[in-house]
Here is the input.
Amino acid sequence: MRPVSLFVDIFSDAPYNAFMPPSSVVKAVIPAAGLGTRFLPATKASPKEMLPLVDKPLIQYVVEEAVASGIQDIVIVTGRGKRAIEDHFDVAFELEATLQEQGKLKLLDEVQRIARLAQFFYVRQREPRGLGHAVLQAHRLVGSGPFAVLLGDDIIDHTTPAIRQLITMHEELGVAVIGLERVARSEVSHYGIIQGREVKPGVFHIDDLVEKPAPEQAPSTIAVIGRYVLTPDIFTVLERTEPGRNGEIQLTDALRVLAREGRLYGRILDGRRHDAGDKLGFLKATVEFGLKNPELGEAFRRYLEQLRLG
Here is the structure.
């Protein structure tokens, strides 16, 4: 069987997830209603999710990861001013006709494949009330089965898609599974940090979560990152979760309930994670993905070497 790579299969003639084994998780939620304040003023009128990482918007990388993992339905939770996301994954008749007339068939194929990646559904979060509230908006569209949640700020580069790694573990355990990463103790105040025990290399039974603790108070240096496979009972927990600071309903609070009931595991994800929601992280991701780009990589490398040499 040909290995699956989310950077290869998108250009094949077969359906994007044709080489994936059947998955028990076929729906994914991508929250995209945030205000993008860390990228102001660039995101004043344009969605942060549409910022280009080399030649594709950030959200397309996340969608491709989901589809390469066997996901068939993508639910995107949007907000005011996010129409460009819907347009990106829709058919673009005028653009396609122009590319056809100009004989730019490779570009035409690439543009058409974007709309065919998956079935897309949209629901609006009318006011910013936290990640948990955003996930709750997708309840009716997700239904009663397990589902994935992918945050667009985290771009994870690995031949086995990050969310596929969690789906495999969920299929083994039958419980909610979240993505983890080891971080420096000096960085724990930027993350949700787990308290738990390692049951086998890289796999943790989670007893509790602490949101952005001070370094000296953190129960570990294992951080939660933006990949989750959740069971539908999370919706019942979210509906009962009281709003916290700023009136927001946090997903972390609901996950803590699952953890205290013994129903939450985590896995250290394989791959290199880029925090594309941070300006410096976005620049680093741009450099690394630019160097890997088959068309631009070598010329870009020479340019960076010239800069280094002065």
